[in-house]
TrEMBL record:
This is Stress response protein rds1p. Transmembrane segments: none annotated. Keywords: Signal. It comes from the Eukaryota. The keyword Transmembrane helix does not apply. Coiled coil: none annotated. InterPro entries: Ferritin-like_SF. Pfam families: Ferritin_2 (PF13668). Residues 1-21 form the signal peptide.
């Protein structure tokens, strides 16, 4: 049994080499063993792996099916959703490593260390993928990566996207704590959000020459799956491996929210004309219902009028120009329940604000 399976494994390896293709489905099952591969917090691999080829576990492309029968663990669904998000984020950094090199960033005017830092962040994100996959119990499927498209060609666009990815992930990690059952899961989510905050602070200092600080508190947005939903635009349609869990669960499939170019500076007090960028998923506004633009920042939310004919509103003048704002269209002031949200969220980055206003 053992020798025939290792024989099969070497045949599979040969094919993988010939095709430059992903490993066979069976090979991913070894990921159920928490002792396989570099161990986060023991190995420095998830900081120091310097290769350009995908680090572990990014060198596996098939889901890990349940190795035991029984009910799912209490936070399996949360970690399946989070792993789905993490695979997109890890691949965003692997894409950066594949697409650019040290001189590409230097020629664009960024520090010589930029490429190395992107490699390190890529390694941290691979570590997150390993941690989240391990947090899923053996009675549930561990999702694999899909293929992703980022539509980015320039270093500046890439670094701007990095800043958005990091601060948005801080927000959905915070929101996921509200779904967690186990206290140990909540603590793990905080610890990972802290790592994303370090990545964000690096970019603010080294890339944008700004203060690394974003005010006394980052943004809490309670409907984390709505942020996860917005990341589906990066998934190449039909590219997820068979057997992957749907991502995310549950999904409201809300209309995507954006804004008309040049309609706003996005600074507090600026007028804003929203837009619904997906022609296949447009909102319908009931004539007898009043709709609102609800903005979240720090621990607050502020509700502004929303004109359902012109899509116009205003960025709350009360907010400080720091960190992250999230905006949704809702049919109730304050969007107090998840079902009151009708479109969005829109991620608005205030540091540097040029990221959103099309200057970069
Ligand atoms: C899950 O399965 C793997 C591989 O069979 C095993 O190494 C691991 O100990 C199992 N985990 C738990 C918590 O039982
Ligand atoms: C990775 O590469 C960078 C820059 O090329 C170097 O400073 C660093 O020491 C390398 N790390 C390892 C672990 O080799
Ligand atoms: C993936 O990388 C890990 C760590 O280097 C290694 O142990 C494993 O054999 C690799 N697997 C594949 C399929 O490349
Ligand atoms: C970086 O990439 C550019 C083009 O993408 C290439 O011309 C250049 O030789 C590369 N530099 C290094 C150091 O690999
Ligand atoms: C909108 O912004 C573009 C640059 O992104 C600029 O060329 C154009 O003139 C602006 N249009 C208006 C109406 O301000
Ligand atoms: C709006 O309310 C009016 C008066 O109550 C009613 O006649 C009309 O059918 C309602 N329209 C919709 C779309 O519900
Ligand atoms: C927004 O703020 C209001 C007033 O403080 C609160 O009642 C409401 O629950 C908040 N909305 C969310 C989604 O937290």
């Amino acid at each position: 049994m053992r020798s025939s399976s290792s024989c099969l494994a070497s045949v599979a390896l040969l094919f993988a080499e010939i095709l430059h293709a992903a490993p066979t489905p069976q090979s991913s099952e070894i990921l159920a063993n928490p002792d396989f591969g570099p161990i986060p917090a023991e190995s420095s691999y998830y900081s120091n792996y310097n290769g350009t080829s995908p680090p572990f576990p990014g060198n596996y492309t098939q889901p890990v099916f349940p190795t035991e029968s029984g009910p799912p663990g209490p936070d399996d669904l949360l970690f399946q959703n989070l792993a789905g998000a993490e695979w997109a984020i890890y691949n965003f950094y692997q894409f950066g490593v594949d697409t650019f090199n040290e001189s590409a960033f230097v020629e664009a005017g960024y520090p010589a260390s930029t490429y190395q830092r992107i490699i390190e962040i890529r390694d941290n994100e691979a570590g997150h993928a390993r941690i989240f996959e391990e947090a899923i119990s053996n009675t549930s499927t561990r999702p694999a990566q899909c293929k992703y498209q980022f539509g980015i060609t320039s270093p500046v666009a890439y670094l701007a996207a990095h800043t958005v990815v990091e601060i948005a992930s801080m927000a959905f990690l915070t929101g996921l704590i509200l779904q967690a059952t186990l206290d140990s899961s909540k603590a793990a989510l905080v610890a990972v959000a802290e790592t994303e905050a370090r990545h964000e602070a690096w970019g603010l200092i080294e890339i944008w020459n700004q203060s690394p600080f974003g005010g006394p508190v980052d943004t809490v947005f309670p409907y984390a799956n709505q942020i996860l939903d917005t990341t589906k635009v990066f998934v190449v349609p039909n590219s997820c491996p068979a057997g992957n869990p749907t991502y995310p669960i549950p999904s409201q499939n809300l209309p995507a929210l954006s804004y008309a170019e040049n309609s706003t500076t996005l600074l507090p007090g600026s007028p804003i004309t929203f837009a619904f960028s997906n022609p296949a998923n447009q909102p319908t506004f009931d004539a007898n219902t009043t709709y609102y633009a609800v903005f979240f920042h720090g621990l607050l939310n502020i509700t502004e009028p929303f004109n359902t004919k012109t899509y116009s509103s205003i960025v709350p003048p009360e907010f400080e120009a720091k960190g992250l704002f999230l905006a949704v269209i809702a049919d109730t002031p304050g969007a107090p329940t998840i079902d009151t949200v009708k479109a969005g969220p829109l991620v608005i980055v205030e540091q540097p604000v040029e990221i959103n206003s099309g200057i970069l």
